[in-house]
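chain below, 272 aa
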Amino acid sequence: MTSNAAQQDAAVADKSILANSAYADGRHLAARQSIYRWQQPQYDLPGIVLEELAGSSGIVLDVGCGNGKFVSRLHNDRPDLQVVGMDISAGILADVKKPVLVADVQALPFADDSAHAVLALHMLYHVSDIEATIKELARVLRPGGALIASTNSDTDKQELDKLWARAAGDVLGIPKGPARVSLSSRFSLEKAPGYLGTAFKDIRVRELPGTIEITDAAPIVAHLASYEAWADQCGVPFHETVSRAADIAAATIATEGSFKITCMGGILVCRY
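prediction:
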């Protein structure tokens, strides 16, 4: 691993950055989520989670719940469940339906065998010790309970990676600039089963491939700009690179009619 990549990985799991910058409120997360409006096929991710929880009852913990997208849907569609949202950032929990807790997933304030299901959706790449965290999630799960995790593939949104590297290169005056920060690479769809297998025997992967086709550069710019919390780890002037990427994306749309992004995410359902 290059020193820059190692610095980026460390920053992705830095609790101070996560709580005070990246997820101090819901703005950056909402910007990253918004690009999926243009994805085909469309996936109802909270709906998929509800399907997986069809046989569950009792307590459901949504660890790293962010802006509460899944918490809200569970409260609305499954009022029989006792849903608890948790995040390391108090700020991002401000508008999440109660009850919520400011808590570190690496040391959950719950007894052994107390939860019927645990959700860890697009967040396990943010913990410093992934294996220990998965064991902690298994600790609070009752026998027969399910851990539902999600992440992206190592191949996800490679077009945005190339766009960033080209824009960064232009800003620095070199053929190809440094890679942008990858959030999911520490716990990608390819790596996740190996990590989860340290605590769970039954792991089912549900891949969610798609294509985003955009005819306006603004959502691309918003997505790239949402990584501002990790600007210091990019090795390039951040705002200048975002601006240059906007110009390149706009030129691509003018020439080709759209900017296409290939997506690959997935949900993993784990049981003992």
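DSSP finds ten helices and eight strands in the chain. The beta strands are 39-40, 59-63, 82-87, 100-102, 115-121, 141-152, 202-214, 259-271.
thats it, cya
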